[in-house]
Amino acid sequence: MRPSRLGLLALIAVALTGRAGAQEARVDSTAHFGLVGIVANAEVARVNAALATPTDLQSTCPIVVTFIDDQGNIIGDPTQRLLQGFGIQFVDFTGDRSIQPGTRVPLRATVAIGDPGLDPACAGGVLLTMEIFDQVSRLTRLVLPPNPVVPPSLITPAS
Q: Residue 40: what are its φ and ψ, rounded to 5°?
């Protein structure tokens, strides 16, 4: 059984709460990448992340990267990383056990970013990109910035 969107939010909350101890963790923001396609076990979808303005080289900013298929199901496992100082972290997706190698996989990625109130390192923002590259040659085919998500209240119905 695949996790749903509600399950995704629960997984993110658990991942971010795990390091907060008794404090209640809150996802401050989530970045969304547009839908792309990769060939399982031949291409890699990689989300890269770094702190935009590191101020304290010891503090960390937690993120949780999740890959989602075109039906809204989580594929692979959500992955937590801790951003620190000027370091760059990344999470790769090449396919999972339920996907036959060579199959074209439509996917998108989301990145939940920790709460700056609990994790001050997150206050300066997080730089994100998603790149698609060939697993053998390592040549990059595409680089995407996160998409801005427009709130429904700003969408004007077509007349």
A: -55, 135
